[in-house]
């Protein structure tokens, strides 16, 4: 049983009571909501005659359904307009802060909370979205919840949860040039599979993790859920504190020094006990691309799609399904696979550092003929920063579309969708069947820089070659 880990410390600090069924009633320090999973929850507490217990601990934005080509109201999609109007009404009636369109603070929920300084070490964070694990990058315990649990947090600011085991994923070495946090996390999921994390919280640690900036750490934790873990986290350190200092909701003045001292004490102790440990060598990782229908079906860009006999027996039925659906042949190279759409954005890779990495590849190049390529900033703040640096003009000059902030084609609950059998190079987090809006559409996950390389060449390409031989 784990002991002395950040997870154990934060869990104990937020434990309200032990319930009869063995679960823990856990206090939620920060509740993030959006327009998709909150309407039914608000309706439920209204029917019960309840209000929002701690509206000051709930923060809302709109992201999933917003169009990215034009955000003029009313939206052309009546359902999307109704969902946004419902969120606006629910927040107004319950005294909840809403960072809406045009506020300068709107964006993907897992992008705006960190950039505003809402997400802080030692917190418990919950949101009706599976990629809430993103916030663990700050040394928080963060997890996605369902609509009924959104109701519970609104009503009583707590959840009934079972305590997880804790696995430390120690990453030695250093990432090579042209290899990014997205490649690292896809590699980890490839090595461990999509089920090994079930029942666990994952602590990401080691020299390669310590070397990552906060936005890269968010990418790693964002996809912890894709490896089956309920949450993933990184211990807070000087990088964390530097990122948070002077942000809108971060402690100020004398309170800042006290906060840093307390946050530092929350890190896993040197003698912490873990339920399991895994060792990863970062120096051996190549740019990684998924070839199948789960994030675990990935390979280095210089590898061949695995033959069936190279895949563990229990995973072969899924591999055969992936071969058929993706129409990719085992034993063939992933490099050179033609793409139709290139999407840079999402809560995984829609931050300013992601756009800079993609822009470095796109600079001076041209999107290949017949390719639809577009960039969707993760928030209004990211868009403003990128535009101040001229990144929007750089992308436009290369033939990319520059869009308004939102979730976009990550899950296609908006007009950004694949059509028919189109295949996308995507910086998002899931390559499930139909994930990007078409029941037969296909998704190849990769880093933003790799997406930019695919856009310029028209096919899956090793970004290291473009970086070494710029246009």
Produce a short descriptive summary.
This protein has 471 residues and is α/β, with parallel strands linked by helices. The chain has 17 helices and 19 strands. The chain folds into 3 domains: 156 residues, Aconitase, domain 3, CATH 3.30.499; 120 residues, Aconitase, Domain 2 (3-Layer(aba) Sandwich), CATH 3.40.1060; 181 residues, Aconitase, domain 3 (2-Layer Sandwich).
Topology:
Layout: H1 6-14, E1 15-18, E2 24-27, E3 30-33, H2 39-47, E4 58-61, H3 78-94, E5 97-99, H4 109-116, E6 124-127, E7 141-144, H5 147-156, E8 158-161, E9 165-172, H6 181-192, E10 200-205, H7 207-210, H8 214-222, E11 231-233, H9 238-244, H10 254-266, E12 276-281, E13 288-290, E14 298-300, H11 316-326, E15 341-344, H12 346-349, H13 352-362, E16 372-375, H14 380-388, H15 391-398, E17 401-402, E18 423-426, E19 442-445, H16 448-457, H17 463-468
Parallel strand pairs: 3-4, 3-6, 4-5, 6-7, 9-10, 9-12, 10-11, 15-16, 15-18, 16-17, 18-19
Antiparallel strand pairs: 1-2, 2-8, 13-14
């Amino acid at each position: 049983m784990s002991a002395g880990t950040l997870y154990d410390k934060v869990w104990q600090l937020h434990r309200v009571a032990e319930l009869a069924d063995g679960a823990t009633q856990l206090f939620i320090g920060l509740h993030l909501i959006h327009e998709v999973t909150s309407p039914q929850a608000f309706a439920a507490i209204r029917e019960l005659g309840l209000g929002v217990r701690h509206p000051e601990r709930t923060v809302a934005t709109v992201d999933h359904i917003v169009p990215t080509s034009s955000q003029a109201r009313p939206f052309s999609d009546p359902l999307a307009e109704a969902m946004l109007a419902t969120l606006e009404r629910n927040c107004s009636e319950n005294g909840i802060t809403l960072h809406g369109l045009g506020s300068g603070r709107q964006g993907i929920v897992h992008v705006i909370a960190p950039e505003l300084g809402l997400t802080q070490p030692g917190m418990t964070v919950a949101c009706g979205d599976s990629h809430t694990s993103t916030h663990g990058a700050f040394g928080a315990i963060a997890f996605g919840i369902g609509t009924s649990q959104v109701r519970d947090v609104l009503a009583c600011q707590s959840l009934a949860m079972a305590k997880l085991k804790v696995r430390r994923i120690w990453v030695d070495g250093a990432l090579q040039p042209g290899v990014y946090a997205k490649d690292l996390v896809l590699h980890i999921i490839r090595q461990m599979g999509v089920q090994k994390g079930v029942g666990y919280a994952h602590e990401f640690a080691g020299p390669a993790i310590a070397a990552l900036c906060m936005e890269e750490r968010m990418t790693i934790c964002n996809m912890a859920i894709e490896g089956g873990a309920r949450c993933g986290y990184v211990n807070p350190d000087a990088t964390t504190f530097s990122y948070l200092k002077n942000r809108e909701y971060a402690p100020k003045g004398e309170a800042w020094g006290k906060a840093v001292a307390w946050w530092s004490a929350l890190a896993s102790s040197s003698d912490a006990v873990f339920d399991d440990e895994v060792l990863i060598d970062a120096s051996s990782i190549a740019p990684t691309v998924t070839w199948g229908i789960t994030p675990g079906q990935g390979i280095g860009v210089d590898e061949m799609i695995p033959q069936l006999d190279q895949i563990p027996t229990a995973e072969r039925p899924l591999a055969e399904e992936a071969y058929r659906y993706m129409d990719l042949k085992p034993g063939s190279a992933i490099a050179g696979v033609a793409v139709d759409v290139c999407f840079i954005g999402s809560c995984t890779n829609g931050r300013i550092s992601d756009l800079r990495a993609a822009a470095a590849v796109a600079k001076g190049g041209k999107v290949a003929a017949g390719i639809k390529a577009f960039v969707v900033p993760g928030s209004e703040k990211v868009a403003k920063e990128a535009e101040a640096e001229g990144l929007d003009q750089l992308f436009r000059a290369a033939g990319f579309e520059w869009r308004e902030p939102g979730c976009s084609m990550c899950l296609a609950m908006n007009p950004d969708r694949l059509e028919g059998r189109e295949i996308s190079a995507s910086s998002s987090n899931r390559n499930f069947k139909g994930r990007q809006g078409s029941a037969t559409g296909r998704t190849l996950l990769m880093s933003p820089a790799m997406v930019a390389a695919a856009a310029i060449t028209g096919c899956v390409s090793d970004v290291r070659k473009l970086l070494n031989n710029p246009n």
